């Protein structure tokens, strides 16, 4: 058989090259780690005879594969390729990470702490531009294709503002008079104004009553004067009559 004639290390080298070629034809970082592991394990088996044993090659594949995965995730050789993912996008909301490329309203990239196999995501700023190195939080996963992020500092400020607004609303519901002292002062001033107006009306009524009494007294005085004049005229007439009779 052909496979029996091929050495195992060479077979690993061939399989690794095939996987790398497939990765090059359809980039997505799904095959590169395994391809690199198989390729290096095969080359080491061909170079060092003790490493050509099946157990040794399996161990080499695991070690090299783990190293390749760490290097790939740490340095992001594909620069964000493979980020067009839509599966499990809801789990991205609320995750934190760091800005690797300045994030604006139209471009940017972040590295999420729990971003899966490829933690690098294309990102857009929720409000203001976010500089590189800033800690961010995902506020909208956007289907997993492009996430919307906000800086942790701004996000914490918004949360505090919302808590303060919620507490203020609760205080207004519990005690509307305390929550709106201006309205209470306005009602008090209105009551004072009504009281003063009532007092003014009372004083005006008293003034009118005094004026009426003064007019009444004046009328009585005029009547008394008229009576006195009438009595004087009557007395004069009687004296004239008596004088005529005596004459």
Backbone CA Rg: 53 Å
Strand content: 5-15%
Structural class based on helices, strands and sheet pairing? alpha+beta
> Span between N and C termini?
192 Å
Q: Which runs of at least 5 residues are low in confidence (pLDDT < 50)? A: 80-87
Number of strands: 5
> Main sheet: which strands, in order across?
1-2-3-5-4
What overall form do the CA principal axes indicate?
rod-shaped
Q: Helix and strand succession?
A: HHHHEEEEEHHH
* Secondary structure tally, helices: 7
* Average pLDDT taken over every residue: 75
Describe the structure in your own words:
This protein is α+β, with helices and mostly antiparallel strands and 247 residues long. Helices cover 62% and strands 11% of the residues. It contains seven helices and five strands. Strands 1-2-3-5-4 form a five-stranded mixed β-barrel. A hairpin with a 5-residue loop joins strand 4 (135-140) and strand 5. Mean pLDDT is 75; it is low at 80-87.
Considering the chains and any ligands shown, give keywords for the structure.
single chain, 11% strand, 62% helix, alpha+beta, 247 residues, 7 helices
Topology summary:
Blueprint: H1 2-5, H2 8-25, H3 32-47, H4 54-75, E1 96-101, E2 109-112, E3 120-125, E4 135-140, E5 146-151, H5 152-174, H6 176-179, H7 181-246
Structure, briefly:
The chain has helices at residues 2-5, 8-25, 32-47, 54-75, 152-174, 176-179, 181-246, and strands at residues 96-101, 109-112, 120-125, 135-140, 146-151. The chain has 247 residues and is of the alpha+beta class. Helix 2 packs antiparallel against helix 3.
């Amino acid at each position: 058989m052909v496979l029996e004639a091929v050495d195992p290390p060479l077979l690993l080298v061939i399989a690794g090259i095939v996987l790398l070629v497939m990765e090059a034809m359809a980039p997505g970082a799904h095959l590169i780690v395994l391809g690199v592991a198989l390729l290096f394990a095969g080359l080491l088996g061909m170079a060092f005879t003790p490493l050509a044993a099946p157990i040794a090659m399996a161990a080499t594949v695991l070690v090299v594969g783990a190293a390749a995965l760490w290097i790939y995730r740490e340095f992001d050789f594909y620069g964000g390729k493979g980020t067009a993912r839509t599966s499990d996008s809801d789990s991205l909301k609320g995750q934190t990470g760091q800005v690797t490329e300045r994030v604006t309203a139209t471009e940017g990239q972040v590295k999420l702490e729990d971003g899966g196999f490829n933690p690098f995501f294309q990102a857009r700023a929720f409000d203001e531009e976010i500089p590189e190195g800033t800690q961010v939080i995902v506020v909208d996963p956007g289907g997993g294709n492009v996430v919307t992020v906000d800086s942790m500092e701004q996000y914490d400020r918004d949360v505090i503002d919302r808590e303060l607004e919620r507490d203020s609303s609760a205080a207004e519901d519990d005690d509307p008079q305390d929550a709106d002292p201006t309205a209470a002062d306005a009602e008090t001033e209105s009551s004072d104004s009504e009281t003063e107006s009532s007092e003014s009306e009372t004083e005006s009524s008293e003034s009118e009553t005094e004026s009426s009494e003064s007019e009444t007294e004046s009328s009585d005085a005029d009547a008394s004067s008229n009576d006195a004049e009438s009595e004087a005229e009557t007395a004069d007439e009687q004296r004239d009559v008596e004088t005529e009779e005596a004459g």
